[in-house]
Amino acid sequence: ALLAPFRAGPAEAALDAAKLRAAALLLDLAWQAKVAFYEALAAEQRLELRLRFLESQQASYATAVELSRAGNLPELQLASELAAVELARVQVAEAENALVDAREALTRRLGVSGARATFTLSGRLELPPAAPPLDGVEAEAVRASLQLAELERRAEAASRTVQLARVEGWLPHLSGGFHGERDGALWELGAHLSVSLPVIDRAQGRELAARSAYDVLRQRREASAVTLRSLARQLANRVESAHARASHYAARLLPARERQLEQTLLQYNAMQRGVFELLLAQRGVTETALAQVDATLDFFRAAAALELLRQGGTPAWGGAALPSSTAPAAAGAGEH
C-alpha cells in the first residue's frame, strides 16, 4: 500500500508512451497508403505513355517494312527499327508489371481483399501551382513529433523508477505466516513475523539500472531531435527542388518538345522531313512526359513525407530514420 503510488507512476508514463507509439504507427500507415496511391497513379500514367510510345514504334517499323519492300531502305535500318519495336514491347510489359505491383502495394496498405480489391483509380498526378509553405518546418516537426514525446514519457518512467528503487531500498522487508499442526487429538497453532532491515542490500542495483536507462533515453531523445531537424531540412529541400523540376518539365521542356514535334510535322507535310524524323520527335515528347511523371511523383512523395513530419510522424526517408524508442534500455525503464 505504501509503495503503490510509486509503482503507479512508471506504469502510467509507460502507458502514455505506448499510446504515443500507437498513434505514430497509425500516422505512418496513413502516409504509406497515401504514397502507395500516388505511386499507383504514376504507374498508370507511365503505362499510358509506354503504350503510346509502342504505337509510334510500330508505325515507324511498318513504314520501314514498306520502304524496304520498295528497295528504298537498307537492311540495317530495318533491323534497327525492329529492335526498337521489340524493346518498346518489353518496356510496356515492365510498365504493366509495375502497375500491378503498385496496385497490390496499395491494396495491402488499404487492407482490402476480394471484390473490394478490384477498385479503380481516379484522377491524375497534377502538380499544384506552388509548393507548400516551408517556413518554420524544423521547429514545427520537433514540436509535433510523437516519437520525441514517446521518448520523453519513457524517460519519465525511468526517472520515476529511480525514485521507486530508492524508496524500496530504505524500507524494511516484512513477512509473516501462520501454521497449524495436529498431534493426535490436539492442534498446535502458531504464527510468525520477520523483519529484515536494508543494511547492505538497499536496491542499489535496481536504482543504478533505472538511472542508466534514464540517461540513455535522454541521450536518445537528443539524438532523435537532431535527426528530426536534419530530416525536416532535407524534405523541405526535396519538396522545393522536385516542384521546381516538375514545373520546368511542364512549363518549358515538354512544350518545347511538343513544339519541335509540330514543326517536324509541318516540314514532313512539306516533304522536307522523313517519317523517321517525325517519329523520332514523337519519341522525344513521350520520353519527356515520362520524366515529368517521375519528377511529379518525386514531389508528391516528398510533400507527403513532409506533411507526416508536421503531423507528428517520422517518415523513413533517405536512411534518416530516428533511433528506435523501443530499444532494450527504453523497454527496461517501464518494467522496473
Question: TL;DR?
Answer:
The protein has helices at residues 4-69, 75-110, 137-144, 146-170, 204-269, 275-311, 328-333, and strands spanning 173-183, 186-196.
Share of β-strand residues: 5-15%
What is the end-to-end distance? 17 Å
Provide the helix percentage. Answer: over 70%
Number-wise, the strands total 2
Count of discrete alpha- or pi-helical segments spanning 4 or more residues: 7
Mean pLDDT across the residues is 83
User: Mind describing the biggest β-sheet?
Assistant: 2 strands, antiparallel
Global shape: elongated
Structural class based on helices, strands and sheet pairing: mainly alpha
Low-confidence stretches: 325-336
List the main descriptive attributes of the protein structure presented here.
2 strands, 336 residues, elongated, 7% strand, single chain, mainly alpha, 7 helices, disordered C terminus
Structural overview:
By secondary structure, the protein is mainly α. It contains 7 helices and 2 strands. Strands 1-2 form a two-stranded antiparallel ribbon. Strand 1 and strand 2 (186-196) form a beta hairpin. Helix 1 packs antiparallel against helix 6 and helix 3 packs across helix 5. The longest helix is centred in the N-terminal third of the chain and has 66 residues, at 4-69.
